[in-house]
Design brief:
This protein has 193 residues and is mainly alpha-helical. The chain is 75% helix and 0% strand. It contains eight helices and no strands. The radius of gyration is 19 Å and the shape is elongated. The protein starts with a helix and ends with a helix.
Length: 193
Amino acid sequence: MTRNKLKEAAMRLFGEKGYDGTALSEIAKEVGVKTPAIYAFYESKEDLFMTVFREAMDSYNTFIQELSKGREKLSARESMYGILSRQYEFYRECPDASKFVLRYMVFPPVFLKETIEEAFLHSDERLTKLVGTLVVQGMEEGAIRDQKVQPLVDSFLNVMDGLSIQYFYYTSKEVYERKLNHVFETFWNGVRS
């Protein structure tokens, strides 16, 4: 229980104040324990931070991957749009994890940059595989013209990255959803048969 509360407080505080701006004593105070209690669960501030980062990335990936359950009934187009919709849903349902991951993907603490990149690459591999499968499905359906798969996967992942930034720029649901729909239609029109 305390371990989970520490992770929740750390995620929120690291997301709001940054790594350097968040003291372990502040995390402990929020949970109602003394700072040394943190060391019963984590070796260091870095260990707590990286645990939270990896779990946030895993929860994001799991959330996106859940789309693939029952996907056999969906076209590639529906599934690819579904990924963008799931990402949007994740941002709305998990704002602390979203803010935390985005902040540290864009501005990692210098001494943790390589560790964060390794954690991200594991996450990216899972997402790349899913999108690649959908691109191939789209080609098999005749919906996507026959071409190299990797450039399409990379392009789609860049659409996702761009929408990630856009989500945090626009507080208007209507504006964000308009942008999501427009960028997906533009992407789809560029790849379809």
